[in-house]
Amino acid sequence: MQGDIKEGKMNKKLKYDPFGDTIKKGVEKTDIEDDYIRQTYVIKREYVNKLKCKAYWDRISQKEILDSILENYFKDKNIKPMPDKHL
Fold this sequence. Notes:
By secondary structure, this protein is mainly alpha-helical. The protein has three helices and no strands. It folds into two domains: 1-28, no CATH class; 41-77. The chain has helices at residues 2-6, 45-58, 62-74.
């Protein structure tokens, strides 16, 4: 089994090849629009619970709520781009 991974063959238990492509060919995530990217953040448990409840009662997605919050936050900000070496 280990030899299969080193040769670049897909390990059936993994969805990715640790020595090659990170996403299995033919698998697409259709729930993400082109303007979005998956990112992980650590936030307070209190905010997670409020976000879930607000999304449930307003019948909108958590993504839409966060998008609105961030849009309002960045609306009046002048954001300078980072140097290429930090991207």
